[in-house]
Amino acid sequence: MLRMGVAVLLLGVLALGFGWWHRANAMEQVALGNGLAGVDPALAAAAKPVRQIRPTPMETLRRISRSMGFGRASHYGPGLEGNPTASGEAFNPRRLTAAHRTLPLGSRVRVINPTNGRSVVVRINDRGPFVKGRVIDLSTAAARRIGLMKQGVGRVELRLLINESV
């Protein structure tokens, strides 16, 4: 009886081992003409193209912001659409751009509306504003994002974004 139990146990272990070995060495079945063919899973995986995942700009660059203080902002928009900006591109009020007197063209600035906490990152592509007491002119889209459309002019905080390679 003991020999019988040991034999059954040994057969069970062998069956489990064979199942594990068979699963590890199983061939993937693929259609070939009217029938099926076995393909080694390792070869099948190697034949499939590997999707390359490119890092996002935020993963490759670390953004550091430098506060430029507070000031008054206004917006300019649809009436000037298509006019050339100081950078040479045509003005588009639907883009997140702005005009500043001294910042280099192409600079990125976070504009924060302290009354509601909303912010937007704009690219400086023009010169201005040419009204005393204002520090930045926002495009219509940027002004809408921070809730500056109704009042037209409002107090904002500016933070210059500096890209630093990681």
From TrEMBL:
Q: Write down the Pfam families for this protein, in alphabetical order.
A: DPBB_1 (PF03330)
Is-annotated flag, keyword Transferase?
Answer: no
Give all residue intervals belonging to the RlpA-like protein double-psi beta-barrel domain: 71-157
Q: What InterPro entries does its record include?
A: RlpA, RlpA-like_DPBB, RplA
CDD domains, alphabetized: DPBB_RlpA-like (cd22268)
Reported EC number(s) for this entry are 4.2.2.-
Q: Does the keyword Lyase apply?
A: yes
Highest taxon of the lineage: Bacteria
Mind listing the UniProt keywords for this protein, alphabetically? Answer: Cell wall biogenesis/degradation, Lyase
Task: Tell me which family the UniProt entry assigns to this protein.
Answer: Belongs to the RlpA family.
Any idea what job this protein has? Lytic transglycosylase with a strong preference for naked glycan strands that lack stem peptides.
Show the NCBIfam families listed in the entry.
rlpA
- Spell out the protein name for this chain: Endolytic peptidoglycan transglycosylase RlpA
